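A student in our group prepared the protein record below, which I am reviewing. Here is the record exactly as it was handed to me.
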Amino acid sequence: MSGRKLVAIAFVLVAVCLFSGLASAQDKLVRIGAMYPMTGRSGLYGMDSVAAAEMAIDEINGKGGVAGYKLDIVFTDSKSKPAYAVRVAERYITEDKVHFLFGVVSSGVGLAVTEVSKQNKVIFIGTDHAATELTLDNYQPYYFRVSNNTFQSMTAGAMYLKELQKERPWKTITYIGPDYAYGHSQLEEIQYNLKRFGVEYQLISKYLPKLYEPDYTSYITSIIKDKPDVLVCGFWGGDTVAFIKQAKAYGLFEKMLYFHPDAGGNYELMSAMEGEMPAGLVLSARHHNNWPDTESNRKYVAEFKRRTGRYPTYAAEGAYAGIYAIAKAVEKVGNPDNSAALIKALEGLQIKLPEDPEGFTSFIDSQTHQIVQMQAIGISEPNDKFPPAKMMLGKWKIYKAEDLLPPKELLEKRMKK
């Protein structure tokens, strides 16, 4: 081949590259800066959140995007460290010029990032952290959460325990949960709601291990000595798996009712335990692979499984919901640059999600910016339809979304606007 032809071919290739780059630069983008843990006990939540967010973006962009814009997202490992996540969020805002901050799993990280959001007036879509402080005490107009908070879960939990007293009389409770905002919120809110619903009981002990505690032996033996009727647990992720595995060896579950109404029913617990998962535990989560039994939920679970080779943890559905919330808000406003208009669009936004049963659509409460959803609490029982899990939840009790909202007097006491 002659030198002239080589030069000509090279020129064409450069021209094509330059044209492609120019076209890419001219694409109108909704820029999203996401943070999730990618390693350690919470790493699976991060990986599932990334996969589900990408799935939602592919679905939306595959249909042409929204309002002439394509969704574009960048992910960074939050390392579950608030100070590090703050630096990432600030970089997203100053260097990447994101329209939305997105994600995080730990409530401690969420509480740190919401301050960055507030200071810089950039909307933060919280997809999977549950401390109620974020939508009450630490409320700020640029923060929205698209998964249930601990108050909603603990309200449903208190309702369940009230009903249980009629079927299986109980009088005493012990609580164990992580020693930070998420764990403290659950303890405070289960007590608040039991009192609100007129349930007579005694909290005989409480334990607050540090996050990612490797050995729960001393706590387990103390709980067994306490002899509560009900053990209310507030762990999440790998901490739940570790605690249940260790507690099973001591026969704890034969001695009391294990009740875990927020994140105890996560699929990764069923998957990690396989055939070792005890039957008869009372659990819930923010999304279940086998409830509701709707076409939407079946389709979501099947597509996630097709893309990743595994069934989704509950964290995935929060990320999926967050992307669709952004898309609907941008579609209503017409562009991603008007934060004030986007806030108005997100307030009261209705969004049909995989976890919604027939006849109900999730919506964002305009006062607190908290999504409002129904909650299902179930009991672990044999079910091999979602391998490697050998147990899933069944015998469901369902709680209406509107019944899980904080009462007016609590809102007035805790919200700071």
User: Anything to note?
Assistant: The first strand starts at residue 29 and ends at 36. Residues 1-25 have pLDDT under 50 and may be disordered.
